[in-house]
Amino acid sequence: MNDHGIVTAPGTLRIERLMPGPIERLWAYLTEPEKRRAWLAGGDMQLRPGGEVELVFRNSELTDGDDRPPPKYEKYAGESRMRGRIVACEPPRLLSYTWGEGGDNVSEVSFELTPRADKVLLVVTHRNLATRDDMLSVAGGWHAHLGILDDRLNGREPAGFWRTHARLEAEYERRIAPA
């Protein structure tokens, strides 16, 4: 399995990861605010179709000993918030919600979970990304966040988020062809 995301259609990125199980544990890290905060963002979710999603990002607090964010992400050095709506919720196998409602470019992210012995196949698909820059940012971001999730689930200390994100975004710049 390749850790890197792939473009599956225009404006669509897919990343697959084999994570420690059981599936209920991984579901909790996707849906419970305190667990989600350890790798992505806190905030409440109403786990039903049409339910509200609020993600409260504190990327600079995700890991210890990190670099400052790159200049283009400086506005995300502190707390930032994003809203969305649940599109689909089928515990513990599928969670899908809109990303960035109220902004210029609303997209959608889906998490599909499939048990594989004592592990769980996690498939993250982010759709409706408007530009290549959005695709590069999202690819580097999901890759870095999922790395933190994997480390947390395995009891390891994750590498610095911003340092990792900057490296990965540069790597995706080479991997994802211009439209």
Automatic annotation (TrEMBL):
Domain of life: Bacteria
Source species: Luteimonas galliterrae
Lineage: Bacteria, Pseudomonadati, Pseudomonadota, Gammaproteobacteria, Lysobacterales
Listed Pfam families: AHSA1
SUPFAM superfamilies attached to this UniProt entry: Bet v1-like (SSF55961)
Family classification: Belongs to the AHA1 family.
UniProt-recorded name of the protein: SRPBCC family protein
Start and end residues of each Activator of Hsp90 ATPase homologue 1/2-like C-terminal domain: 22-153
